[in-house]
Amino acid sequence: MKNLASVDLESDKQASTPRALLASYKHTLHFIAICVILTVVSALNATHTSADAATTPNQLHIFYVFMIGMEWLWVRFVYKGMRKYRRSILEFFEFRQLTLREFGKDVVYAALAFAIDYVSNLGIVGLLQHGEQPSNPLLPTLPVGALAVALWICLSFSAGVCEEVVFRGYLQRQLTSITGRVWIAILAQAILFGIGHGYQGPIAVLSIVRYGLVMGIIAALRGNIRAGILEHVTWDILGGFGIV
User: Fold this and answer.
1) CA distance linking residue 153 with residue 158, whole number of Å
2) What is the residue-averaged pLDDT of the chain?
3) Are the C-beta atoms of 151 and 65 separated by less than 8 Å?
4) Which of 149, 201, 221, 231 sits most deeply, having the most CB atoms within 10 A of its CB?
5) How many Å apart are CA 216 and CA 169, to the nearest integer?
6) What is the pLDDT of residue 52?
7) Count of CA atoms in the C-beta half-sphere (13 A) of 157
């Protein structure tokens, strides 16, 4: 009976408030610090890279592979932090509740988010950029050729999955648990998501913060990141070819 009581007590401890966290506070602070460091490094790199500099196909291929690796390293970092709290990244997907009807809702929400993103992005670009899309110094040319196209699609898929897992899955839920306010979490993750793209310039950052807000709201409404992934992957693929 004594052993059984000890087990029950331990279960109660795991079900208390610390259990609501996805990882430790220290892990989240490290996450934010890495965001800031990557922003500074990428911004400095973009500053020292001429916008008119020629980019060879091989350089572009290497860059795509490098970015794919970086995206999945983000997921690994989150996974390791969550594992210590016996939490799983799979929680963000809610596969157990996934039915054909729920997937249909995901598609509808993804389409709605895409429409909102498209219209609001046009508004920001029109007002602040006079209709000209801000340039991305780290993506100087569109993918050309079978290998570049294949790598771009892989990068778009990786970005769509990994960034939704990291920002709308981990960070938004973690900040909700810490602050007790979902709107604070949505706003904070969107700002961090935006400044993480600081190398693209202030107008692009503003647009990406807006994008992060839309994705955060969709994730909160759906209770998972499935619709966000569908929208994000689609947006990145089309954006890489200059369609959006």
Assistant:
1) 8
2) 83
3) yes
4) 231
5) 9
6) 45
7) 7
pLDDT of residue 38: 80
Rounded to 5°, angle at Cα 43 from 38 and 49 = 125
Q: How far apart are CA 228 and CA 164, in angstroms?
A: 7
Q: Which residues contact 162 (CB under 8 A, 6 or more apart)?
A: 71, 72, 74, 75
Give the residue among 76, 68, 82 at the shortest CA–CA distance from 24.
Answer: 82
pLDDT interval class at 101 (50, 70, 90): very high
The residues, ordered by sequence, that sit 6+ positions from 133 with a Cβ below 8 Å of its Cβ are: 125
Residue whose token pair is 């079900």: 15
Rounded to 5°, the CA angle 157-100-183 comes to 60
Q: From residue 98, how far is each of 106, 223, 232 by CA, in Å?
A: 10, 12, 19
pLDDT tens column, 198-236: 777 777 788 899 999 999 999 999 999 999 999 999 999
Query: What's the pLDDT tens digit per position in 124-149?
Result: 766 665 555 555 655 656 777 889 89
Residues, the chain, total? 244
- Can you give the C-alpha Rg of the chain in angstroms? 20
